[in-house]
Every structure is written in structure tokens, then in C-alpha cells.
């Protein structure tokens, strides 16, 4: 991977709406982005990220889950900065909204 002169940053919850914009702008600015998602292989959820300019060269998606203790430790330690936009998705099966 070519050195772009910019650092590596982490965006948690990278497939979310706001996080996707962070990823887009960071890639456009030449950063290497380490994005956390629940399932990096789910093209329906992460495909839009791979279509961003610079993604093939500077985007890495890794599995992390807020509900798993220590899930983000290695990812965050590898980065110079973190944009924390992930949120746990909790559902109540008794709720009529679900």
C-alpha cells in the first residue's frame, strides 16, 4: 500500500449514514481509513463504502461489535485518531415497534 502522507484513522460504525460521510471525506483527503462494521462481508450494508473514491487503496473494513468486550481494542490502537459513531442496536421483542 502506498504511503499517502496522511495517517490512519478509525471510523466506528462505518456503514452508518453519518459515518459513511466521515469515511468519504477522509478518503478524499488522503487518509487511510480503518472502518469497523458488524459484518464486513455483508455487501448490502458495506457495498456503498467500496464505491467511494480511494476505497480500493485506503479503506479497510474490520469486524467489531460494541456488545463484545475488547472488540475495538486492536483497531483503535492501530490508528492515530478515532471518529466514534457506532451505536449498539438493541431491540425489545415485546415492543410493538419491532
From TrEMBL:
InterPro entries, per database record: Epimerase_deHydtase, NAD(P)-bd_dom_sf, NAD(P)_dehydrat-like
**PANTHER family given in the database record:** NAD DEPENDENT EPIMERASE/DEHYDRATASE, OS08G0515900 PROTEIN
| Gene Ontology molecular-function annotations | oxidoreductase activity, acting on the CH-OH group of donors, NAD or NADP as acceptor
Alphabetized SUPFAM superfamilies for the sequence: NAD(P)-binding Rossmann-fold domains (SSF51735)
Tell me the keywords, alphabetical order. Oxidoreductase
Recorded source organism is Eleusine coracana subsp. coracana
NAD-dependent epimerase/dehydratase domain: residues covered: 9-87
Protein known as: NAD-dependent epimerase/dehydratase domain-containing protein
Q: Does the keyword Oxidoreductase apply?
A: yes
